[in-house]
Design a protein that fits this description.
With 266 residues, the chain is an alpha/beta fold. The chain has 2 domains: 142 residues, Rossmann fold (3-Layer(aba) Sandwich); 110 residues, Rossmann fold (3-Layer(aba) Sandwich). Helix content is 43%, strand content 17%. The strands form 2 sheets. It has a 6-stranded parallel beta sheet with strand order 4-3-1-2-9-10, sandwiched between helices. Strands 6-5-7-8 form a 4-stranded parallel beta sheet, with helices on both faces. Strand 9, helix 11 and strand 10 form a beta-alpha-beta unit. Helix 1 crosses helix 10, helix 2 crosses helix 3 and helix 4 crosses helix 6.
């Protein structure tokens, strides 16, 4: 079981930032990644649709004998976590929300926490609810930033257009006087520096990828599931292969990868 791969899935490409962080933290672990490019973006889909997609992907990763499953998508984490846990009852399932909430809320007293993410994530209210369950005095300002994902996927990073879009969103009055900002989408670490520059380094930015990787490392260690052997294997699947995805994947995972298209819906 310890030698089995870790399964990671996302609506598309953003989860590769989590896959990369896990690869850095757990260099001996094999990874199977599934990007549901046929149905992206999840942030614009109904809860029921996201739950159905997530259930099918979890079953696919279970058939691939994964020892753990990581929902590397905030939209799916916010509305499909319980469904996935019920689907794969004997496999530990992790999401990208809970580790971040614990990290932030446990260090917060009367601070103001900003959260930016997709429409599905923000409309679920999951960050506000979970943060205030741990720290009732925390103020949470959550705002959807739907243009960030297509902007990043089209390669508009650290350019004039991205600077303007970022400034337009983050200048919103609801985010005034925040102490920290949760980047509640796995795409957003790729514009970390731009967001940091907007705030002049005066707001603490919370990058979920590293926090999630550290949390999963500790949990697998507790369950005695850390792979001690070397020579890990990395497999990448998508539900709809496109050349643009293959090109962007290198940018997200930070190295060349081979991608295979697979139909799991029939």
């Amino acid at each position: 079981m310890r030698n089995s791969p870790i399964g990671i899935f996302d609506s598309g490409i953003g989860g590769l930032t989590v896959a990369h962080a896990l690869k850095e933290k757990l260099p001996n672990e094999s990874i199977i990644y599934f990007g549901d490019t046929e149905h992206l973006p999840y942030g614009e889909k109904s809860d029921e649709a996201i739950q159905n997609f997530s259930k099918n992907i979890a079953e696919f990763l279970e058939r691939k004998n994964c020892k753990a499953i990581v929902i590397a998508c905030n939209s799916a984490s916010s509305v499909a976590f319980d469904i996935v846990k019920k689907t794969v009852k004997n496999i530990p399932v992790f999401n990208v929300i809970d580790p971040v909430v614990r990290e932030v809320a446990n260090k917060c007293n009367s601070c103001k926490i900003g959260v930016i993410g997709t429409k599905a994530t923000i409309q679920s209210g999951v960050y506000t609810k979970k943060i205030q369950e741990i720290c009732s005095t925390a103020k949470v300002a959550a705002m959807a930033t739907p243009l960030f994902v297509p902007m990043i996927e089209e390669g508009f990073v650290n350019e004039e257009i991205s600077h303007k879009i970022i400034a337009n969103y983050l200048s919103n009055k609801s985010l005034a006087n925040i102490d920290s900002l949760i980047l509640a989408c796995t795409h957003y670490p790729l514009i970390y520096n731009e967001i940091n520059n907007f705030y002049g380094g005066k707001v603490q930015l919370i990058d979920s990828a590293d926090i999630v990787a550290n949390f999963i490392f500790l949990q697998l260690e507790k369950m005695n599931l850390i792979n001690k052997n070397k020579n890990p294997k990395y497999q990448f699947y998508v539900s709809n292969y496109t050349k643009s995805f293959a090109k962007s994947a290198k940018f997200f995972f930070r190295e060349e990868i081979e991608i295979e298209e697979v139909n799991i819906w029939n």
